[in-house]
Automatic annotation (TrEMBL), chains A, B:
<feature type="domain" description="Glucose-6-phosphate isomerase prokaryote">
    <location>
        <begin position="32"/>
        <end position="181"/>
    </location>
</feature>
<protein>
    <recommendedName>
        <fullName>glucose-6-phosphate isomerase</fullName>
        <ecNumber>5.3.1.9</ecNumber>
    </recommendedName>
</protein>
<keyword id="KW-0324">Glycolysis</keyword>
<comment type="similarity">
    <text>Belongs to the archaeal-type GPI family.</text>
</comment>
<dbReference type="InterPro" id="IPR014710">
    <property type="entry name" value="RmlC-like_jellyroll"/>
</dbReference>
<keyword id="KW-0413">Isomerase</keyword>
<keyword id="KW-0479">Metal-binding</keyword>
<dbReference type="Pfam" id="PF06560">
    <property type="entry name" value="GPI"/>
</dbReference>
<dbReference type="InterPro" id="IPR051610">
    <property type="entry name" value="GPI/OXD"/>
</dbReference>
<dbReference type="GO" id="GO:0016853">
    <property type="term" value="F:isomerase activity"/>
</dbReference>
<dbReference type="InterPro" id="IPR010551">
    <property type="entry name" value="G6P_isomerase_prok"/>
</dbReference>
<comment type="pathway">
    <text>Carbohydrate degradation; glycolysis; D-glyceraldehyde 3-phosphate and glycerone phosphate from D-glucose: step 2/4.</text>
</comment>
<keyword id="KW-0312">Gluconeogenesis</keyword>
<dbReference type="InterPro" id="IPR011051">
    <property type="entry name" value="RmlC_Cupin_sf"/>
</dbReference>
Amino acid sequence: MTAYAIPPIDPLRISFSAAHGTMTPEGPLLTRRMSDVAGLFADEDARRRAADGDDPVVYTVAASPVPEAAGELPQSLTTILPGAVSGEFHMTKGHMHPDPQGEIYLGLSGRGGVLMYDGTRTEWIEMEPGMIGYIPPGWAHRSVNVGDEPYRFLAVYPGSAGHDYGWVVEHGMGRRVYRDGASYTLAPFSAAG
Amino acid sequence: MTAYAIPPIDPLRISFSAAHGTMTPEGPLLTRRMSDVAGLFADEDARRRAADGDDPVVYTVAASPVPEAAGELPQSLTTILPGAVSGEFHMTKGHMHPDPQGEIYLGLSGRGGVLMYDGTRTEWIEMEPGMIGYIPPGWAHRSVNVGDEPYRFLAVYPGSAGHDYGWVVEHGMGRRVYRDGASYTLAPFSAAG
Ligand SMILES: [Mn+2]
Ligand SMILES: [Mn+2]
């Protein structure tokens, strides 16, 4: 199965692989390459050069068949590949939920974190395998790989939540996350230039 | 913290222990002893004798501080202690969600499963550590320890879902789960006698 199941759906056994970034049974698989994330990194010229070059995958999102429909509780496994654009670490586009619902991330492998922004306050939660990051309703969220291996996490979110990517384009995320030696540093947000 | 946080709540890092059945930070802890589960097992006389004896713990539910409130996505870690009453394995009371919302269970340790019942159809999902059991909206759910170690799982469910225990008392769960040598067998449901 490579599409969402149609409600009403039956009870399901779902397995996932922290080593491969897959879910079984499979729902839709989303792949975001450098050419899919215009305006995401502060250095837009460098992003365009990378897109015009080998156009690397920035992240993938493998969903289970549980659909994004009201009343369901879908799950997905995100893999952010390691890398940076002018020192700014690979990250997801980030979104706000149009229906203000909470979400959990469960760390699976690699080194990463969740940047959250409610329009006023910004929070950074460093993730570890086996740890939950809780995203309260009303907080936009973006994940960042700050290591040199794939960073993977499982997301569980109400099917009604939705994805408003435009909110993040308009408001930013409060911070950007840059490489700093073997670690990282959080810098004030700046629009892509 | 041994109570739910009051909304609006801030982003949270939450860790949990599959070895100890705890969540950190802590929310409320529920303990169900044999004396708390009158009418749960088919052999009510044997249950009462156990309650009048050393009244063993049947299961505990350790919640995170994320509250059971609309828009939040609370989590809890259930530990079902090994044991049986006249051959019927230890289990949770089970409930239906008054607000029809899905739920996921993530297997953590031990051997167990989820019994689900929608009033007509009954399903049994055998759980494994690292596996998700998906409970669709409209299905009552009960967990059972079919092994001889504690069985533990993490639950994630919308805060609006609620717990209707009366539905299960009235309708049963379609099946009962009994010890069968080193394994288990599913028998037709019978009311406690
Ligand atoms: Mn989300
Ligand atoms: Mn439930």
